[in-house]
Fold each of these.
Amino acid sequence: AQSVTQLDSQVPVFEEAPVELRCNYSSSVSVYLFWYVQYPNQGLQLLLKYLSGSTLVESINGFEAEFNKSQTSFHLRKPSVHISDTAEYFCADGGSNYKLTFGKGTLLTVNP
Amino acid sequence: ETGVTQSPTHLIKTRGQQVTLRCSSQSGHNTVSWYQQALGQGPQFIFQYYREEENGRGNFPPRFSGLQFPNYSSELNVNALELDDSALYLCASSLTGRGRETQYFGPGTRLLVL
C-alpha cells in the first residue's frame, strides 16, 4: 500500500529565511507526486506536481520541489519565505489509479 | 471557468443522525472524489465517482455512501453519525480521475457531531 511520510509536523522560520519541508513516499508503481497548500479555513490548492521528466519542478510563487527516486523523496523548498506563506502543506502521491494518498501535513509558520 | 463548490459550509449534527453533503464539480470535469480530513491530519480518501459510477473506495464503512448525478455533481451521505465523523469533508474534481491528473478541491464542509 502506498504511504506518504512528512517528517516534520511543524516548521517555524523567520521571514526571508530559506525553508525545506520534507516528504518521503513508498509507492513502487508509477509515481505522481503533488504538493498542496491549505490556508486557514480553506480547501487545498495545488502548489506543484511531478509527473515525469525533469526532476525539479517549480511553482509560480517561488517554491520548488525535487523528485529523488533513489531516496524516495519529494522535498519542497523555498529560498526566502514571506509571512503570507504561513499555511499547512501536504505532500500527496497519486500513484494509484484514482486516489491521492496524503501525508499528515506540515504546518509552516513564518514569523516576522 | 467555475471552480469546485460545496454546501453547506458548516453543519452541526447529533450522534445517530444522517447528513448529506453536496459538491459541484469544476466545469468540464466528470470525476468527483471525496476526502475526510480530521483535525490535525491529512485528507483520507473516501470514494470516487466517475460518470455516475463508483470508481474506487477507501477504508470507510458502508454508512458512508455517495451519488453522482448526470451533471457530475455529487452527494456524500453519512448515516448513523458518530462523534469521530467530525471533520472537514473535501470534494475534489478532475477530468477522468486518473492518478496523474490534478484534483481540484472545493473549500470543504466542516461537520461537527455532538
Amino acid sequence: AQKVTQAQTEISVVEKEDVTLDCVYETRDTTYYLFWYKQPPSGELVFLIRRNSFDEQNEISGRYSWNFQKSTSSFNFTITASQVVDSAVYFCALSEAEAAGNKLTFGGGTRVLVKP
Amino acid sequence: KAGVTQTPRYLIKTRGQQVTLSCSPISGHRSVSWYQQTPGQGLQFLFEYFSETQRNKGNFPGRFSGRQFSNSRSEMNVSTLELGDSALYLCASSGNQRNTIYFGEGSWLTVV
C-alpha cells in the first residue's frame, strides 16, 4: 500500500532563512504522481507542484524548488529566503497510476513558522 | 476562472443529526473527491465521483455517503453524527485522471 512520510512536524525559522521540507514515499507502482500543497490557517489546500514518476527533472519556481530522487523515494521541497507569508502547513501527497481515479495519500504535514 | 466552491463554510450540528455538504468543482472538471481532515488522523480520502459514478472509496463507515449531479456538482452526507466527525471536510476537483487536483476552502463541521 502507498504511504507518505513527512518526518518533520514543525520547523521554525527567522525570515530570509531557507527551509527544506522532507518527504519520503512508498509505492509499488512504477508510475505515480507526487504533489506538494500549502495549507494556510484558512484551511484551503493550495496546489504548489505536481511531478510524474518518470520525470526526475528538478524544478525551481521563484523562491520554491523541488528535489525529486526516485533512488531514495524522496520528494523534498525548499523555500529560499523565507517570508512571514510562507507560514503554513505543507503537505506532500502521492497518487498511484494503477489505482483508478484521483485518490491522494497525504503525509502528516509539516508546519512552517517564519518569524520576522 | 472560479475555483472549487464549498458550502457551507462553517456549521455546528448536534450528535445524532445529519449534515449535507456541497461542492461545486472548477468549470469543466468532472472528478470530485472528498477528504476529511482531523488533528488526530490527518487528511483522509473519503470518496471520489466521476461522471456521477463513485470511482473510489476510502475506509469510512456507511454513515458517510456522497453523490454527484449531472453538472458535476457534488454533495456528501453524514448521518447520525458523532463527536468524532468534527473535522474540516475538503472537496477537490480535477479535469481528468492524473490531472492536477485543486481543493476548495473546506467546510468546518463541529459536532456537539
